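Sequence dictates fold. Next comes a concrete instance:
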Amino acid sequence: MAEPLDTCDLLCLGLLHAEEIRAAVPDSATVQAAAAAARGLGDGTRLSITAALAAGEELCVCDVAWVVGLSQGLVSHHLRQLKNASLVSSRRQGKMVMYRLTERGRQLTAAVLTGVAAVAGVSPNRG
C-alpha cells in the first residue's frame, strides 16, 4: 500500500494569519528579480569579484583579474554575468572599462559575506 501524501485540507494557521503571511510574500516579479541576483552571487568566482569591487570601489578587468588571481577572459565573462544580474555597472574610460558594484550588488555582497563569516566565526576579509 502506498504511503499517504503529506497534505492537509485545512489551514493550520487560521485564515487571518495565513492571509497576513500571504500578503507579506513578495510578488512573482520581485521574487524572480531577487532569485536572479542571488544566482549572480551563487558562484565563488563572482563572489570573489564582487568582494574585490567592494574593497576597490571601481576597477578595470585587468586589476580585478590580478586581485582575484584569474585570467582576464574569465573575469570579463563573470563581470558580464554580474552586470546582467544588475549587481555591477560599468563605464568606459578611454580604452578601459571600469566596473563598480551597484548599491544592490554592494548590499548583497556584504550580506552574503557577513552571513557566512558569522556562521564560520571569521572576519569576512580574513578567511
